[in-house]
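Lecture 7 notes: from sequence to structure.
We start with the chain below.
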Amino acid sequence: MDVTLFILPAIVGVGIGILSGLLGIGGGTVMVPVFRLVFDMSPVVSTATSLFAIIPTSISGAVTHVRHKTCIPSLGIAAGLGGALTSPLGVWLAQISEPWMIMVAAALIIGWSAINMISKAIKMKPTKTKPDTSECVDGSGADVAKKTPEADTGTPATFSRRQLLMGAGIGLLAGVASGYVGVGGGFLMVPLMLSLVGIGMRQASGTSLIAVMILAVPGVVEQALLGNIDYMAGIAISIGTIPGALIGAQLVRFVPERVLRFIFGGFLIVAAVLLAINEFGILG
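Predicted structure tokens for the same chain:
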């Protein structure tokens, strides 16, 4: 990779990182199309390199979310450990699948997540609220007692065993998807945490990043042993995604819930369409 091709992914990585920190995704839903369409990598190398770059990206965003208490660490750890168990299965499935099947599967899964997210956003009533900075709890605990997970502000004092088990189950599903299509799994975990666990979008974003940084590790190790990772491209894009994720995790406190859902769904649709039309040869 020459200097130009090293700088370009770093610049693109900043935007990917902002989306990662803002929406709770590892960034693979954007990185896979970028590696596949812009750098003409094979489907397997695209997914493997994306998975490699997801770890530093998600760590960067997760640290900021933890600092501002816009996440539920126990739920994120439960989902991450569940995903870590199944992500190697996803990598194995990718190895025995036809290359086009990996990209089509990615497009279908991403598209489903997008439709689910946008449909819920449409049903929500627009709110005229000031930027919510209350999630950055000052330690006094004065307002936390009045808040609930559904209100999407503050971190609940306790989380039930049932909710943690549900989080682990979500992680199991996301882990397979992560290893198979080279994404962090946030595009599945965020919608499922919203609908099944009952937390709000901001909390789901931060919690998902904690899970992503855990569940991606086994898949990355397996892809590395298989020799599928383009380390130069992965490092180059991570140079941009790390600071970008920090910015995105800061912004999440100021963007309304409904807007976050529309942004999440919109970028997923774009990623799914690009992957699909490329694999069917429409882009040439």
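Points to note: Residues 3-122+147-279 form one domain. Residues 90 and 241 are 24 Å apart (CA to CA).
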